[in-house]
Design goal:
Elements (H helix, E strand, L loop, with lengths): L4 H16 L6 E6 L4 H13 L7 E10 L7 H11 L3 E6 L13 H18 L4 E3 L4 H15 L8 E3 L6 E3 L7 H11 L15 H13 L3 H10 L7
Parallel strand pairs: 1-2, 1-4, 2-3, 4-6
Antiparallel strand pairs: 5-6
Helix pairs in contact: 1-6, 2-6, 5-7, 5-8
């Protein structure tokens, strides 16, 4: 239906693996999945690579269910992981109930709570790497969000090595554009599953996304250049 889209995504993941040394022999990888197009694409690609592309690694998946989410894709995720022979874990996190008085739920708080529980689970179960489904657009948006709203140049690293944990975060989709992942998800038949969180509808990220589109006019090279700028800082 969409010629070569899977091959294109696979090649970009391979390039990311090589450029950032994302996987090493004997890694035990935990992939965080939501049922959405990004993590589902990553899950499928990492599952297909096992035993076919060096290095050799173990792969398991986890779904974190927050206490305010309305959708529950557990049946879809069980079926997908079963078809790919991937062990699947479920973890309930009381994101909303942890809020202090007079505090409102927001995307940053939610992601922080989820990430904390994800790290604890990984450490307790012997994983040394966590794979997340952030793509090129996510990474460029985060860069500009931090510049505009925090006054700092920082972003999502393709590979983040924690100093205080024997654990790394990897983002193998860092070279893949969202429009490519949409085509991949359509071709694979799982595009209908996505996040329906009401708190993200008016988020900073969506406003920045609109600004990036105006800035780049959808030009892939311009977006790639924004991503490259994070590694190409001329202090002088």
């Amino acid at each position: 239906m969409y010629p070569n889209i899977r091959k294109r995504i696979s090649k970009k993941i391979t390039k990311a693996m090589f450029d950032f040394n994302l996987l090493e022999e004997g890694d035990k990888v935990l992939i965080a999945i939501s049922g959405g197009k990004d993590s589902s694409t990553l899950l499928q690609e990492l599952a297909y690579r096992r035993g076919k592309i060096d290095p050799s690694y173990l792969l398991e998946a986890i779904y974190i269910q927050a206490d305010f989410t309305e959708t529950n894709p557990q049946d879809f995720l069980r079926e997908m992981c079963q078809n790919l022979s991937i062990p699947l874990h479920f973890l309930n996190v009381g994101v909303q109930q942890r809020l202090k008085n007079n505090r409102k739920l927001n995307c940053y708080w939610c992601s922080t709570q989820r990430r904390t529980e994800l790290i604890h689970f990984a450490l307790q179960n012997g994983f040394n790497k966590i794979a997340l489904g952030h793509h090129l657009d996510d990474m460029v948006e985060t860069l500009l969000m931090n510049m505009v709203y925090k006054g700092e140049i920082s972003g999502m690293a393709p590979k983040l090595i924690y100093n205080k944990y024997p654990l790394s975060i990897i983002r193998p989709l860092c070279y893949c554009e969202e429009k490519e992942i949409i085509l991949y998800a359509k071709d694979a038949g799982f595009l209908q599953y996505s996040c329906t969180c009401n708190f993200s509808k008016n988020s900073h990220r969506k406003r920045i996304r609109s600004e990036i589109h105006s800035l780049t006019q959808g030009n892939s090279t311009y977006k790639q250049n924004l991503f490259k700028s994070m590694r190409n800082i001329h202090i002088d």
